[in-house]
Amino acid sequence: MSFQPTFAIEPFRIKSVEPLGITTLEQRRTVLERAGLNTFLIRAEEVLIDLLTDSGTGAMSAAQWSAMMLGDESYAGSRSFFKFEAQVKRITRFRHMLPTHQGRSAENILFGSMQRPGSIIPSNSHFDTTRANIELQGMEACDLLVEEGKHPMLEHPFKGNLDVVKLDSLITEVGVSHIPMVMITVTNNAGGGQPVSMANLREVSRICRSHKIPFFIDACRFAENAMFIKLREGGYQDKTPLEIAQEMFSYADGCTMSAKKDGLVNIGGFLAMNDQDLYERCRNRMVPIEGFPTYGGLAGYDMEALAVGLQEVLDESYLRYRLENIEYLGKKFLAAGVPIVRPTGGHAVFIDAGALLPHIPWQQFPGTALCAYLYEISGIRSCEIGSVLFASKNRDGSVTPAPNELLRLAIPRRVYTHSHLDYVAEAVAYAAEHKKKIRGVAFTYEPPVLRHFMARFKWVES
Ligand SMILES: *Cc1c(COP(=O)(O)O)cnc(C)c1O
Prior knowledge:
The structure is a single chain. It contains 17 helices and 16 strands. It has helices spanning 25-34, 62-68, 79-92, 103-112, 128-136, 164-174, 198-211, 222-232, 241-250, 276-289, 300-312, 316-335, 353-356, 366-378, 387-390, 418-433, 451-454; strands at 49-50, 96-100, 120-123, 140-143, 182-185, 215-218, 254-258, 269-273, 348-352, 380-381, 383-385, 392-393, 399-400, 406-410, 441-445, 456-459. Helix 2 runs antiparallel to helix 11 and helix 14 crosses helix 16. The longest helix has 20 residues, at 316-335.
């Protein structure tokens, strides 16, 4: 028998280090007071381990940093653009690619080029910027996630799948002419990165093609999704992540991408597609928003880093480590009796704060309370995904809570080590042990829109 370690080690070593923000309990209490218990209002230097988001927070490799020195900053026809384009085409095989400075501008250009007000764009789950960009064009964003995806505790390999029965009936109900596009988000960000199966992509593609409806992938985490397919779906064990990604994209007509995720860069994105006419419309719309089509809001050196990142992200040992790391953290939480969304996804672990803190009613935001408490005891920054973010106000003035009161710990790519995750696991276990001491929170300032970003809270008196 050959040596088989019980976990996937970081497949890299550290060349450049950055100190963590080390603070005392007293300092963190002052910070929390100043930030109104809202982790979005804390300065990064006051954070020990930052799990606020996995977007744009990853570490670049030595190969990426050195490629940046080759950046060609020509306004038109930059050599760096062609390197970047070649990598996008190698993976997606789409005919056309437009660079953008991040994912949401790819969305803005795509939906702004459609001119189809009143129509509906279904998806498994639209990300919030995607939804906003669809709604800005007078269209409706519609989520058709499979039922399994809506139950946090239910184990299922592909909780990000789109419900094809619902898609079929939506098409019958509103008519093909009212559906300019179908989208699938891989992995499904809304659920912490739950994957979409190849079978589901194939089936959605078949339905779209039979109706001549374009099918686009929101591809932010395409490599993590490809690895989940390799690990969980029959027939893919012996395929490389690149081959799997190529097959995923072969079912679609185009994609939007935030390279701040699986592009392994801190800024960047793109829009890709096959259709010549749509491409020309997007290109025309792009010039006044993002810039000339061979740089699109990016520097030549950004495109160099991205061209390398797109190759590195499909490395199998990297992806194995990435997914196992997140699973490892989830297992530690479960061992400490902390309820989490199961199975763990590709980029985050969600704690069910509502279930962990039953003494805090949803009106006192258990996710935000746990988030503030966790920062107080440990310096770890996370964010609430619950009723502060998602509660909706009804016409009669009543409020419908979010379906679940969650705390999200998103893991930046290639940034934290196993020992950092062990620290997180110990801090969360401590919080769970002392949960009776955690009080609810109440607004002292409630912004009218996107309230989670700027809101301020106080602890509720016990
Ligand atoms: C991050 C993200 C976006 C938006 O990308 P930005 O680079 O933040 O503009 C769109 N869709 C999904 C699924 C995302 O995770």
